[in-house]
Design goal:
9 helices; 73% helix; rod-shaped; mainly alpha; 328 residues
Length: 328
């Protein structure tokens, strides 16, 4: 008896855990059902690609984005060429040689020196370097002018040339800026969608594993229940002939749904029993002790539920009559 109680407690705990997992799965699939999932570029809103497919899509998307960025850089190169071909632009074509020019405080004032020659080398990808975004090139061009105006006096020629070239550059940059902003917005949207799809794919993979685990756990629970049934039956006394006859009579009186359950119980212990036959003949004396007691438990539950239904029907009929009398 103690072993049986312990097993029931363990089963109860396991079932509670299974219920929690089922609720988690329900939440995930409800999210799909209510249309919270939408994949850009896919006809089926609720299609969940695999992690491998998402990584392949990400690689292709990055390649396409890189191609678009190269096109923007070619357009920027045209602007850069116009600025560097100015007759005064030679001043900024090479790094400032602070030692040769005896500018002892240059590197104290200028934190990050920049020049057009260095920018061109990076645009050409020389020395293993290279810009990945047109905004980075724009920032370095602005830095050239900012450094010149920071170190030199406003009254100096260098300051004035830097100011004029800066204004010329900003005017041309404004013409390209809408395309750059459009590309930035597109990249942000694609990245956000990619992150969302990746998270959902991970949740789907987790849900798939959880479903498989639940299937195994439910199978184990059913096996344990069968073992408990056997333990209970083994603890019962052998059924007498009179009890068998009473059981046979009670089975005939069962409701169709309960009778179907009874047939299933018999079929579980008798592989040759034809459960799909239109008429079923049951030899009560040929059944195992385990099957008999399981049938008796079924009959007991069915009769108990039948009495409850009769009580509910009687109560409903009584209320109906009282209502009718009041109406009169």
């Amino acid at each position: 008896m103690d072993d049986c109680t312990t097993s029931i407690d363990e089963l109860t705990s396991t079932v509670n855990e299974i219920e929690k997992k089922v609720k988690d799965l329900e939440q995930f699939y409800l999210k799909l059902k209510h249309g919270c999932v939408r994949f850009v570029g896919l006809e089926k809103e609720k299609y969940i690609p695999t992690m491998k497919k998402l990584k392949q899509d990400a690689s292709r998307r990055e390649a396409v984005a890189a191609k678009r960025m190269q096109d923007l850089m070619r357009q920027f190169r045209s602007i850069f060429r116009q600025i560097t071909q100015d007759k005064y632009a030679w001043i900024f074509m090479h790094p400032v040689d602070a030692k040769a020019l005896q500018l002892k405080d240059y590197h104290q004032i200028i934190d990050r020196p920049m020049d057009f020659g260095t920018i061109k080398n990076q645009m050409d990808g020389m020395g293993g370097t290279g810009y990945r975004h047109v905004i980075d090139i724009c920032s370095d061009v602005r830095l050239v002018f900012a450094n010149a105006m920071k170190y030199n006096e406003k009254s100096s020629d260098v300051y004035e040339i830097a100011r004029i070239l800066s204004e010329k550059f900003e005017e041309k940059w404004l013409q390209l800026l809408p395309k750059v902003e459009e590309e930035e917005k597109r990249r942000e949207e694609e990245e956000a969608q990619s992150q969302f799809n990746m998270q959902l794919a991970q949740e789907a993979a987790h849900a798939k594993l959880a479903k498989e685990d639940l299937h195994d756990e439910l199978f184990n629970v059913n096996s344990r229940i069968e073992q408990l049934n056997e333990m209970v039956v083994q603890g019962c006394k052998q059924m007498s002939n009179i009890e068998k006859r009473r059981l046979g009579v009670a089975l005939v009186k069962l409701q169709p749904e309960d009778l179907k359950r009874a047939v299933q119980i018999v079929a579980q212990s008798n592989m040759n029993f034809d459960i799909a036959a239109e008429e079923v003949e049951l030899d009560i004396n040929a059944q195992s002790e385990s099957t008999l007691w399981r049938l008796k438990l079924l009959v007991s539950d069915a009769l108990k539920n039948g009495h409850k239904r009769e009580e509910c029907d009687a109560l409903a009929e009584s209320r109906k009559k009282m209502k009718k009398n009041h109406a009169v």
